Amino acid sequence: MKLTVLIDNNTLTDRYLLGEPGVSYFIEADQKKILFDTGYSDAFIRNALKMGIDLLDIDHIVLSHAHLDHTWGLEPLIKLYTEARIEGIGHSEPDLIAHPLIFNSRTYSGMQEIGTLLSADKLSKVFGLQLSSKPLWLTENVVFLGEIPRRYDFEHDPLESKIIIDGKEIEDEVLDDTALTIRTENGLFIVTGCSHSGICNIIEYAKEVCNEERIVDIIGGFHLLNPPERKIEGIVDHFSKLDIKEVHACHCTDLESKIALSDVCNIKEVGCGLQLEYK
């Protein structure tokens, strides 16, 4: 399998690509092409074009959760496919895979909308929709984890945003936050968006779903932005008991948290254009 970082907060030296506070990865595994998250803007499309990656030829679009820095790039992606149809350019018909709460409206601190801008009805006119709270195997070795069980109290964050469910505004537990896991010869490769559900919760559920204890790598945001001491200590302790070869913590993971994790695991740099390959 091969993963290419299309969007991250950072760019790599001498790679003249666009960065933004968001996530988008292009994954090739088991003869399938998967777009994981779409960032905030069209920057992931522009970076893919520069790197020779054809986003008109993908099999699946996977969304880690609804927040704007992971889903607002859906609109320019729809434009890309619509324009291809107008111009008679060949393209695939990918399906979009996400948790059933992905389209519910979200608000935060007076902001009118921080969730997905498009409705299920409008997206279904362009992409096939597969909404699941249960694990969903995309290939023999790639699984969408669905809703992550919340097992570790130290990973529970104060609820700050709101979600509309059945017409009622309630505290948002970000239950749609999920991850993708890929089985490799040397263990699991876990791909996260923001890990609102807790990176340790994600790891343990991925191991359970895949019946595999070994982890070769994790890439994505760990939702560690000035985290409470109890949370970072719990995560560091959990990672100290895991034999992970590399950890590509990025996006919503601050420097101090990376330094703390570096005491117990091999933290690697991430930026737009980075490519990771595992057999």
Structural account:
- The chain is of the alpha/beta class.
- It has one domain (2-277): Ribonuclease Z/Hydroxyacylglutathione hydrolase-like (Metallo-beta-lactamase, Chain A).
- Helices cover 22% and strands 27% of the residues.
- It is built from 7 helices and 16 strands.
- The chain has helices at residues 43-50, 68-71, 74-87, 120-123, 199-210, 229-240, 255-261, and strands at residues 2-7, 24-29, 32-36, 60-62, 95-98, 106-108, 128-131, 136-137, 142-144, 161-165, 168-171, 179-184, 187-192, 215-221, 244-250, 275-277.
- A 7-stranded mixed β-sheet has the order 7-5-4-3-2-1-16. A 6-stranded mixed β-sheet has the order 8-9-12-13-14-15, covered by helices on one side.
- A hairpin with a 2-residue loop joins strand 10 and strand 11 (168-171).
- The termini are close together.
- The model has no long low-confidence stretch (mean pLDDT 96).
Observed structural traits:
single chain, 279 residues, alpha/beta, Metallo-beta-lactamase, Chain A, 7-stranded mixed beta sheet, globular
Quick description:
The chain is of the alpha/beta class. The chain has helices at 43-50, 68-71, 74-87, 120-123, 199-210, 229-240, 255-261, and strands at residues 2-7, 24-29, 32-36, 60-62, 95-98, 106-108, 128-131, 136-137, 142-144, 161-165, 168-171, 179-184, 187-192, 215-221, 244-250, 275-277. The protein starts with a strand and ends with a strand.
